[in-house]
Amino acid sequence: MLETKHAARLTALSDTAGAAAAVRPLRPQARFSLRLPEAAAAEIGTVAGFRLDQPINRAHPAGERLAVRLGPNEWFLSGPEADSDGLAAEIEAGLKDRFFALVDIGHRNAGIEVSGRDAAAILNAGCPIDLADAAFPVGAGTRTLLAKAEILLVRTAPDRYRVECWRSFATYVHGFLQEAALDYGRP
User: Fold this and answer.
1) Model-level pTM?
2) Which of the 8 DSSP states describes residue 108?
3) What distance in Å separates the CA atoms of residue 67 and residue 76, rounded to the nearest whole number?
4) Tell me, what DSSP letter sits at residue 140?
5) How distant is the alpha carbon of residue 146 from its chain centre?
6) What residues contact residue 106 under an 8 Å CB cut-off, 6+ apart?
7) What is d(CA 36, CA 10) in angstroms, rounded to the nearest whole number?
8) For residue 68, what are the contacts with CB-CB under 8 A and spacing of at least 6?
9) Chain CA centroid to CA 149, Å
């Protein structure tokens, strides 16, 4: 006799938002890669509302702007998309007479937010970083891998992470996170 109980069927594009977890694309944003000598960053401190004089692998939000220090002379900067040209002009004006490189990467990158009490577990399905509070506290930001894709990971709140990746990997990264989230947030 045929068994009448079946596993719940899920569509390939199931909504992953639930009480315990959510994976959502971020709105388009202005994004920049800034290269600047470490000594100049320490001397300047803040430019155009972006804090540069912070430790490596730390993120600093200021309103809708975010600065993530990725290395001794490298920062990821983001802000409202509508302010893209203005942000670039503000940064350049604040760094005048200094040696620097500012590249607009707003069309190269895509952002995804992973939130909820199981956000760290969803990310750890493919990310090898220890996301415990002591190891990766709020304000931490670093380059890492998610499965086979390079990402920038920022912890923006105790239960919220921002994932940045190249647009060419966005469908893969988003799909991977959605698949991992299927284990969470469902009754």
Assistant:
1) 0.87
2) T
3) 6
4) B
5) 12
6) 28, 29, 30, 31, 32, 81, 84
7) 48
8) 58, 59, 60, 75, 76, 77, 141, 152, 154
9) 13
